[in-house]
Amino acid sequence: MSEAFDLIVLGAGPGGYVSAIRAAQLGMRVACVEGRGTLGGTCLNVGCIPSKALLQSSEEFHHAGHALSAHGISVGQVAFDLAKMQARKNAVVEANVKGVEYLFRKNKITWIKGWGRIAAPGRVEVNGAAYEAKHIVIASGSESTPLRDVAVDEKRIVTSTGGLEFDAVPAHLVVIGAGYIGLELGSVWRRLGAEVTVIEFLDRILPGMDGEVAKQFERILGRQGLKFRLGTKVVAADASGNAVRLSLQPREGGETSELSADAVLVAVGRRALTERLGLGELGIRLDGQGRIATDERFATSVSGIHAIGDAIAGPMLAHKAMDEGAAIAEILAGRVAHVNYHAIPGVVYTWPEVAAVGKTEEELKAAGTAYKVGKFPFTATPRARAMGETDGFVKILADATTDAVLGAHILGPDAGTLIAELAMAIAFGASTEDIAEISHAHPTLSEAIKEAALAADGRAIHL
Ligand code: NAI
């Protein structure tokens, strides 16, 4: 069988499904190859969406048990049913993946079920059948980076996939890696009653984030009961007994110590998934980190084949992949499109949340950029006080000469939503003065952004 399409997309995650939909909207005949039983990729099935469902449920439980009494509300004994919580999470996932199926039908996109291999430019093979297309977009995503000496079984030693599926709360969960996944899933199980120890190789948590934010965040998580072993590596894991026995060593070497865990979450990063696509045979060039090398128009080294999302360079974030998916569709349709990589926000969906866009203070220092800092704490923000959520602050970094916003970092309630204003500021080349001149509704959390912008010039009102 051979069918001709304008575009075949490999992978139906956020990058792939968005490129398929946008290309179809632009009039192309589109097919999307996906071997998972459902559309939506890692994000919708085993990543962003199920984790947010469990974060929400565990937060509600924790809030009911710990925060309501401060409002004069007593609720008696608060309990949870993990099976129901998991069923709700599965329903949330299903609603989202079905939503993508609906959008595929609406846009007349053909879903080719199976794992695709590029046999030649313009030719994709799936389960022995061949499909022809003018353009091919690879959106194959990423997978958890394995850790040598810690073999994952997805039962007791898990990646984020297994870490979303526990049917009982582990008494002691050891998380390896204090990044996005480790801190989000560590928070979920901590709130539900697990003892959680986070082992991190570096001497700080959230390595890519602003150091000041990370330091204060570590203290907050510590108050929530997460224990940190920084500057530490895991050198062996033995899962043969009732408990998993981990051997730990200081990063620089030295005496090993033992730690026993009921479950271990390996969250030491993700790597591009490029195997079995036939890239080697085609001569598609990879970069030094195993990602598909592309130019600024997402073209690979082989004509007619493009790549986007986690499989190429850049932050491994769903919204980055989505933006690239929309952009490649526009480009293939002969239109102009680009992604502004300076203005991609990153959010850790713990409570409080951590959100960042643009440069960190460490990056500006390393680049020798002259900058100024405007900071404002949520303790001085009336709405945050009314909410009882006063941990954290807004920090804006601006060019010392031009006043242009170069980076922004928020630790606090709804930081992930608040950061959008600062992403827009960077995208529009706004200055702190521009932000300070905008009316921000009172009383809202967004006032902390206005005050931080004012603080960059030493003129915050409420400090
Ligand atoms: P990550 O890169 O965020 O963090 C990995 C952490 O593991 C780092 O702190 C690193 O120093 C540490 N590490 C590496 N090797 C280690 C070792 N041998 N022993 C101890 N620590 C070690 O990676 P993570 O959390 O696995 O997430 C993977 C990707 O998924 C990230 O790129 C992230 O952007 C994305 N993601 C995004 C989310 C969001 O947007 N909220 C949520 C979850 C994942």
Question: Any chance you could write out the topology, listing elements then pairs?
Answer:
Blueprint lengths: L3 E7 L3 H12 L4 E5 L6 H6 L1 H19 L15 H25 L3 E4 L2 E5 L2 E4 L2 E10 L3 E3 L12 E2 L1 H4 L8 E5 L3 H12 L3 E5 L11 H13 L3 E3 L2 E7 L5 E7 L6 E5 L1 E4 L3 E3 L6 H4 L22 E3 L10 H15 L13 E3 L4 E6 L2 H7 L3 E7 L4 H6 L5 E7 L5 E8 L2 H13 L4 H6 L9 H9 L8
Helix pairs in contact: 1-9, 3-4, 3-6
1,4-dihydronicotinamide adenine dinucleotide binds next to helix 6, strand 12 and strand 18.
The number of E-state strands comes to 22
- The fold-level CATH name of the largest domain is FAD/NAD(P)-binding domain
Bound ligands: 1,4-dihydronicotinamide adenine dinucleotide
Tell me the β content: 15-25%
Which architecture of the largest domain does the CATH hierarchy give at level 2? 3-Layer(bba) Sandwich
Number of helices: 14
Overall helicity: 25-40%
Main sheet attributes: strand count, strand direction, barrel closure: 7 strands, mixed
Shape: globular
What key phrases describe this protein's structure?
single chain, 463 residues, FAD/NAD(P)-binding domain, Enolase-like, domain 1, 3 domains, 5-stranded parallel β-sheet, binds 1,4-dihydronicotinamide adenine dinucleotide
